[in-house]
Amino acid sequence: MIRSQLHEGMALLTIDRPDKANSLTAAMLRDLLAAVSDARMAGVRALVLTGTGRVFSAGADLDEARAGLATAPEWEALSGAVAAMPCLTIGALNGTLAGGAFGMALACDIRLAVPEARFFYPVMRLGFLPQPSDTGRLSRLVGPARARMILMAGARIEAPEAQAWGLVDRIHPAAELLPAAMALAADAVAAAPEHVAAIKAMTA
Q1: In 33-147, where do the E strands start and end?
Q2: pTM for the model
Q3: What is the mean pLDDT of residues 75-103?
Q4: CATH fold label, 2-202
């Protein structure tokens, strides 16, 4: 369900459950967290998060969400681990991003998306609170009013608008998404880990 590839200073983590819109179970969240930890231990200089199919992630698996996964601490732990990575982190969003899956993407340094991607976080309608760090990261990226449009008004944001807001940095066709992410990571991968970490800290 989670594929992890480490190669020459880069980690590529892929959510691979396209038949379920890459919705995440508790086990998958733990696997993602372990993969991020392994990448850190390996001293990677870049980490890329992506998915298979047409959806990056629909958030929590529906059955497990009803059993409490929607508010589980694993979401916050995962986004915190991504944010704390001392390397360049890139979300290569191959499709729609929804719900709790927002956290790991918001925690990335750079977000790329395909033109068909949509972004929504329906916590108001579903009666859940968003993860604590998600609200701050989202507000810093798009501003408080737009964050409230997503979190409180249930707005569904198309990729061009997401880019205009600063939620997405660049838009690429699906076939170009991963190559574009790899190209952005190339300079960091070629550098020393401490150099990458220092520049990331300076831009925090």
Answers
A1: 46-51, 55-57, 88-93, 96-98, 110-113, 118-120
A2: 0.97
A3: 97
A4: 2-enoyl-CoA Hydratase; Chain A, domain 1 (3.90.226)
